[in-house]
Specification:
The chain has 406 residues and is of the alpha/beta class. The chain folds into two domains: 241 residues, Thiolase/Chalcone synthase (Peroxisomal Thiolase, Chain A, domain 1); 146 residues, Thiolase/Chalcone synthase (Peroxisomal Thiolase, Chain A, domain 1), CATH 3.40.47. The strands form three sheets. Strands 1, 2, 5, 6, 7, 9, 10, 11, 12, 14, 16 and 17 form a twelve-stranded mixed β-sheet that branches. A three-stranded mixed β-sheet has the order 3-4-8, with no helix packed on it. Strands 13-15 form a two-stranded antiparallel ribbon. GO terms for molecular function: 3-oxoacyl-[acyl-carrier-protein] synthase activity. InterPro entries: Beta-ketoacyl_synthase (IPR000794), Ketoacyl_synth_AS (IPR018201), Ketoacyl_synth_C (IPR014031), Ketoacyl_synth_N (IPR014030), PKS_Beta-ketoAc_synthase_dom (IPR020841), Thiolase-like (IPR016039). This is 3-oxoacyl-[acyl-carrier-protein] synthase II.
Amino acid sequence: MTTRPDVVITGRGMVTSAGTGVDDNWKRVSAGVSTAVLGPDLGVLGTQVICPVQDFDAPAVLGPDARRLDRYSQLGLVAATEAVGDAGLRSDEWDGSRVAIVMGVSVGGVETLTAQHVALLQRGPAATSPLTMPMSLVNMISGQLAIHLRATGPNLTVSTACASGATAIGTARQLLQADACDIAIAGAADASLVPLILAAFARMGALTKRSADPLRASRPFDRDRDGFTAAEGAAVVVLERETDARARRASIRGRVLGYGASADAHHVTSPHPDGMGAQAAIRAALADAGLAGTDVDHLNAHGTSTKLNDRAESKAVRSVLGDEVSVCSTKGVTGHLLAAAGAAEAIYASLSIEHRLVPPTANLEHVDPEIDLDLAPVPRQQSIDVAMSTSFGFGGQNAALLIGAR
């Protein structure tokens, strides 16, 4: 049996409501300070809490052509630019045919699509922009990254709802192990904080209604949680085979030890009540890494702050990882980044290893009595060798990543 090469993270980039850049993100997340604000008023639906990216100036980073990109692509390109720079790479120096891009997306350029629909209804067909399709298609983030970074290798867009970021990183790792590329740029982006999407989530009963107290609205695993806080952002990593990274003396930010994926085959929006699909993804990641559940020191959980997800995830974690793994959900700070959640939380997991710190689960005041996990409402110092990040999406799609120390 051929031994698969080890894959490492050599670059990280982030743009979220917690800040633009990895350092700003980590400061906010490790402090446990919520980023929620009031967004569009959805009237009788009773919710308007969101976690948007603030003070974001895409043209300052990407130049004037940024205006020809939907916001989700802008966020993704800025995060990728940071990740490539962090990896010590230059797109004008590499062999672009050996650079792969794998990005996770949910609904794509919905800001563009909804704005152009309004233009069509109000002013007629001639008012629609000729850029509508190239700005809104779900694959355009990967296509735009290829142009921006001169990357002509495999170019993929994956969509597994809120598991998309984790799926992208796992898929990119597989491309490296198959020798389909030498460098893989992987992650996800989402910018869906438009009234249509927010109203749709609200009609499902998925969003928090704590509009009177937005900073305390997202409260994963808490007894009084009532839904997630929608957020936007992007997170991107640069992956390489360890031998290649060491040959060029790159700084290694962490290792991708294992990846697992599964489907609930249960319900389009609700997780299996016992977390069976989540268990399968976690077990698959452990098997991929050749590890046991007890080898995992820390879990950055999906932890959406919804009644069903948090309970199902708790059952899955207890069943596979046991009762000694430290668990946090950073969504108490960032809200739910939707497609980008898995990529962002994998980066947070790598930072937990690096800084020996378990971030607090913000707003955790009274743990749900049906949730039996080692959770902490305050930061905790801990030596971490192996961390896991779990991500689950509508359609019953599940993904788990195992991140190891450098």
